[in-house]
Amino acid sequence: MSREPPGAAEEEAPGAAAGAAAAAAAAGGGGGEGEGEGRARGGAEGGGCYLALCARPVHFEKANPVNCVFFDEANKQVFAVRSGGATGVVVKGLEDRNPISFRMEDKGEVKCIKFSLGNKILAVQRTLKSVVLPEKRSLKLLKNQSINVNWYMYCPESSVILLSTTVLGNVLQPFYFKSGTMSKLSKFEIELPAAPKSSKLSLSERDIAMATIYGQLYVLYLRHHSRTSNSTGAEVVLYHLPREGSCKKTHILKLNRTGKFALNVVDNLVVVHHQDTETSVIFDIKLKGEFDGSTTIHHFVLPPRSIQPYQIPVAGPASVTSQAPVPCKLYSSSWIVFQPDIIISASEGYLWSLQVKLEPVVNLLLDKGKLMDFLLQRKECKMVILSVCSQMLSEPERGSLSVIATVFDKLNHEYKKYLEAEQSYTMVVETGLSRSNPLLKRPVRTQAVIDQSDMYTHVLSVFTEKKEAPHKFTIAVLMEYIRSLNQFQIAVQHYLYELVIKTLVQHNLFYMLHQFLQYHVLSDSKPLACLLLSLESIYPPAHQLSLDMLKRLSTANDEIVEVLLSKHQVLAALRFIRGIGGHDSISARKFLDAAKQAEDEMLFYTIFRFFEQRNQRLRGNPSFTPGEHCEEHVTFFKQVFGEQALMKPTTF
Q: What Pfam families does this protein's entry cite (predicted)?
């Protein structure tokens, strides 16, 4: 199992000029072996396996004297070149729905072939020091650097080439490509395990990888022996390579074993494969480690596990394909590993991308706080996180309130970060500053943003409906989530408060409901006030609690009036509206309707007289205008109290 193809078609001689290396790098990366076309499927679930090969790999025919196979690291494509291209070239990639097929003239052995990004330009290399672009038939020299090079490595994701220089090979010189220009970055030295005994190349290309982790470019050095005498086993040293400034050693990943290793980076995790034990481990540099003042030492997050078993279907006629699939030989010596996540099996003719499975991690990482820290950094984490939240609220995995609080706080920390970023973006856009900053982008809502709707729908409402837990625990969990939201100054949505109230009512905990409202544990809202009104039949004080809440809201004056009128408390509604100075604009008909429905003649008389007096004060006449539609109430008043009881116009 190696990081580069065994017996690759092209080798770079020590001391060769970097110009050829730069040209090859600009075209897209190193060569590889493999061929053909087909399809594989995953086999049985591997118990506790948190790594898996993708279900739809690229299948290719093994290399033979007629057929040469190359791998392009930039486009992640396999090239099958038959008879130097004369009888056909087939190009296939993991993301390509249809293979690309074409023919070209046979002008000798092809040492390297690849497309530019977007498959627009084809580059072919037939000699050690020349590259041909068949379409343009020319190659323009943009810039040249004279430097002795032992070997080079190119990272297509970051457009950075790394050149190994000096006799020992441990001084690395990076260059950055952008828009046809080549910028020289600060060179740096890789610390070798010990002082070399002879002046010969001590740093091999096999022990170096480049990858982007959490948006930053790192150089990964596989050091087979630790520099400290009291430490056994190999380690991976991470050097942070910024565009500006010097490259610094920042992380050390302890492997605690020796042997043959290979590196991948998947979902911002450093994956280290160990061929001897046929297992892999993962490291997350975002998780807390041991800081010694300059570097952070990390241990693998989970116990070593094999990649999930993989089954290869038998190819051939229908009678043959009905046979049982053949297990794939994992960690084979013919495996070739490319960054960030590519594994090629030269012996079986497959190209896979490596994937992380989050579900098995839940049972392997028992510390819920650390588990959340890990999951929140993964791309496809939302449903797994919600599942973990549900599990920790239910038997047999029910957690303590302190653990539950820790999980809620970690979720809401991410939630708050997103809300603040969204708010900042909105402010910049509204103030027009975005026009002066064209690079400004709206914050991306990742799966790590678990909002109140997610928690309510998938966790809390389901949890309360099951009614498995003691009601005190149920209420404590709901209040803990609300506490966490308040701690991060996130406005609590009314449906969470409603869930609390319904749970309290289900268990007849009215005294607790009263306390929560009295001490404003549950924030005021119109929906909440309406919910309290609906509870009046089973808890009479809920009516007054609702009214008090509406008064506190101040913007809910219309709702308060409607509530009082619906309860035939017409005088109370009138007093309230007079108290806030709105009695000159209210509808007389609405109040007279309510007074009539109350079937209290004196109440109707009082309300009728109030509006007569209002009419006199505002218009100089107590009569109602046709637009007020109070004719039926005037008729009713005459029937009950006589026409002489109507108020006469007052003249001054």
A: RMC1_C, RMC1_N
Structural tokens at position 53: 């090969």
For 535, residues 6+ apart whose C-beta sits below 8 A from its C-beta are 501, 505, 542
355: burial class by Cβ within 10 Å (0-12, 13-18, 19+)?
Answer: middle
What residues pair up with 393 in beta bridges, in sequence order? Answer: none
The helix or strand, by DSSP H or E, that contains position 252, with its residue range, turns out to be strand 248-254
Q: For 2, which DSSP code? A: B
Per-residue tokens: 403: 């653990």
pLDDT in tens, 472-488: 999 999 999 999 999 99
Query: How far is Cα 650 from Cα 497, in angstroms, rounded to an integer?
Result: 54
DSSP 8-state symbol, 643: G
The gap from C-alpha 273 to its chain's centroid, in whole angstroms, comes to 26
Instruction: Give CA–CA dist 304/275, Å, rounded.
Output: 12
305: number of CA atoms within 13 Å, CB side? Answer: 19
Q: Hey, how many other C-beta atoms are within 10 angstroms of the C-beta on 580?
A: 12
CB atoms within 10 A of CB 7: 8
The sheet with strand 261-266 has its strands ordered as 261-266, 269-274, 279-283
Tracing tokens 């896979």 back to the chain, one arrives at 352
Cα–Cα dist 418/423, whole Å: 8
Domain boundaries defined on the chain: 151-299, 364-576, 577-652
Per-residue pLDDT, 175: 92
Q: What are phi and psi of 513, to 5 degrees?
A: -60, -45
**What secondary structure letter does DSSP report for 592?**
H
Among the listed residues 99, 37, 4, 42, the one whose alpha carbon sits nearest the alpha carbon of residue 350? 37
Rounded CA separation 270/341 (Å): 10
Q: Tell me: the pLDDT tens digits for 198-209?
A: 677 788 889 999
Report how far residue 7's alpha carbon sits from residue 335's, in angstroms, rounded to the nearest whole number.
Answer: 13
pTM confidence score: 0.77
Q: Please name which of 279, 334, 331 lies closest in space to residue 305, comparing C-alpha atoms.
A: 279
